[in-house]
Design goal:
The complex is a heterodimer of chains A (176) and B (356).
Chain A (H helix, E strand, L loop, with lengths): L1 E9 L4 H14 L3 E6 L3 H4 L2 E9 L13 E4 L2 H7 L8 E5 L13 E5 L1 H7 L6 H13 L7 H8 L5 H15 L2
Parallel strand pairs in A: 1-4, 4-5, 5-6
Antiparallel strand pairs in A: 1-3, 2-3
Chain B lengths: L4 E4 H11 L4 E4 L6 H10 L6 E4 L3 H13 L4 E5 L1 H16 L4 E7 L15 H5 L10 E3 L4 H18 L2 E7 H5 L1 E4 L35 H21 L3 E4 L6 E4 L2 H16 L4 E6 L1 E3 L3 H7 L5 E6 L5 H8 L6 E5 L8 H13 L5
Parallel strand pairs in B: 2-3, 2-4, 4-5, 5-7, 6-7, 10-11, 10-13, 13-14
Antiparallel strand pairs in B: 1-8, 6-12, 9-11
The chains are: A alpha/beta (176), B alpha/beta (356).
């Protein structure tokens, strides 16, 4: 089983961090893992994306050109990547920031107002992890029971308050 | 087996250098290799090493010359235009028979170019890293694990043969994270007492480190001696990896990120019944000539997949004595060939007639 995941949004939304969360879980599960951030002009211009591959077999190219899981956290990202998703892909849209619908009819689409939920639930800056929680619920990228363990691996113990908030955000997205 | 950790290629490489005994790092920032310098800046003071951000690339490489002349493991890192600035110092290192490790995390060129991945410094690294007759050992990692393993190897080979080695990476390898094991075994110590300028304690003659030989006979002798060593390296240190070559009729030659993309394309082509494999050079110098030449008797065509306008392809053609056609599959300027690009070239190669 191979997941080719593309996370995309604005710089500052925590795209790279949420990608790292999935990658760390892959590491703990002893899967083959690659994580590749955009570091080019698009990052400097404000948009940001991150390729993650989780696989049972050796990974070739670390570049995800045709994701089977796409997370779009702003309109430019959905515009740019919608067409690239494989047929049957699962597309996750932050519907509080993107007011259009996905146009393709050969993919499964999940709309979740992650940015609004983060603000309503007093989880500032954690829309990314709400999205990831929803991805975990719908796309089988990692077992839900790993969330706490993986978060503790990723976030240093001295930032314990962040661990708790991040887990809360994942739970919120998972149960949405 | 040590526990694996997730690290960026650049950071894993920096940690590997420290584990290999490097305590002297001199550099100057440039994307996409700056994480190496940042990592060294954080770690070196803690372990009693030296991190110094020089005023320029030229200064940094000459600091390497100083540390290497004193017999210490020293490393610098940069990206394409920065390596060009270091080329004078690299030639002086070679001319003085000094070991050092130079990292090039390549970006697009020429000129200031761009900041995205590239492999367009192949000629620069393997043919002409500076003026004069000399070679660099050139190692090309294709994973974060190889960023670690080849850093370790690079220091060892540099010491073993008393010459500079280069790790030729690219922006993708530098920026990506993969699980990596940092267990690397013993660091082999080499006796440098016969040449290193590290203090005589008034107990021996001075060692002189120098690349100026005004008598032509003497300079010629050093050049010949150096090339005898290079011949040993060509005989003993070639490294490559083979992928699905057992029954291949088409042979892809690719290194670094191009090899990773090619692997996907090979798997897809195999599903369609096309017999294609890959020989991946791990040492770009010495180039794996013999294995390619042997493959030329079995396959009907080669494809050189590279992020350049066609540089390594010349070495492939030379290695196989032009016995079989060699196609070029390339993207440049920071673009990376897609699986489909490589598949297109595989189909083209497959449609070629010709005897096997």
């Amino acid at each position: 089983m191979t997941h080719e995941i593309l996370l995309a949004g604005f710089g500052g939304q925590g795209i790279l961090f949420s990608g790292k969360f999935l990658a760390y879980d892959g590491l703990l599960e002893e899967k083959e893992v690659s994580w590749l951030p955009s570091y080019g002009p698009e990052m400097r211009g404000g948009t940001c994306n991150c390729s993650i591959i989780l696989s049972d077999t050796k990974i070739g190219s670390p570049i995800v050109s045709n994701p089977n899981v796409l997370v779009a956290m702003n309109l430019p990202s959905l515009d740019k990547f919608e067409a690239s998703a494989v047929p049957g892909a699962k597309i996750f849209v932050d519907s509080s920031l993107i007011d259009r619908k996905v146009e393709r009819d050969d993919v499964e689409v999940y709309y979740i107002p992650a940015t609004k939920l983060a603000s309503d639930e007093n989880l500032p800056g954690l829309a990314n992890m709400i999205m990831i929680g929803h991805v975990i619920a719908k796309a089988d990228v990692m077992p839900y029971e790993n969330v706490e363990k993986t978060m503790k691996k990723l976030v240093p113990a001295k930032k314990a308050n962040l661990i708790e908030l991040n887990i809360k955000a994942v739970e919120l997205g998972y149960n949405y | 087996m040590a526990e694996k950790v997730l690290m960026k290629g650049n950071e894993a490489l920096a940690e590997a250098a420290i584990m290999a005994g490097c305590r002297h790092y001199f550099g100057y920032p440039i994307t996409p290799q700056t994480e190496i310098a940042a990592y060294m800046a954080k770690r070196m003071p803690v372990i009693g090493g030296t991190f110094l951000q020089a005023e320029s690339e030229v200064a940094a490489i000459n600091m390497i010359y100083g540390a290497a002349a004193a017999g210490k493991r020293a490393m610098t890192s940069s990206s394409s235009p920065g390596i060009a600035l270091k080329s004078e110092g690299i030639s002086y290192l070679a001319g003085s028979d000094l070991p050092a490790l130079i990292i090039n995390v390549q970006r697009g060129g020429p000129g200031l170019g761009g900041i995205q991945p590239s492999q367009s410094d192949y000629f620069q690294s393997t043919k002409s890293a500076g003026h004069g007759d000399f070679k660099l050992i050139v190692l090309a990692p294709a994973s974060v694990q190889e960023m670690v393993d080849l850093t370790f190897k690079g220091f060892d080979l540099a010491d073993k043969y008393r010459m500079p080695a280069m790790l030729l990476s690219d922006g993708t390898m530098g920026q990506m994270m993969e699980p990596v094991s940092l267990e690397m075994g013993e660091v082999k110590e080499y006796d440098k007492s016969s040449w290193a300028a590290c203090g005589t304690k008034c107990e021996r003659e001075h060692n002189v480190v120098n690349s100026l030989f005004i008598q032509p006979e003497e300079l010629e002798r050093y050049n010949f001696e150096r090339y005898e060593r290079y011949a040993q390296i060509e005989a003993n240190e070639v490294m490559y990896d083979e992928y699905r070559m057992e029954d291949a009729e088409i042979c892809i030659v690719a290194y670094g990120v191009a090899a990773r993309v090619s692997q996907n394309a090979i798997d897809k082509a195999r599903e369609a019944g096309i017999k294609v494999g890959m020989i991946r050079p791990i040492t770009l110098w010495p180039f794996p000539k013999a294995v390619l030449n042997a493959a030329a008797d079995k396959v009907k065509a080669f494809i050189s997949v590279e992020l350049s306008m066609g540089q390594m392809i010349e070495d492939v053609e030379l290695a196989i004595r032009c016995k079989k056609p060699v196609l070029l599959c390339n993207r440049v300027g920071g673009m990376i060939p897609t699986t489909e690009d490589v598949l297109g070239s595989i189909n083209k190669a497959n449609s070629l007639g010709g005897d096997k």
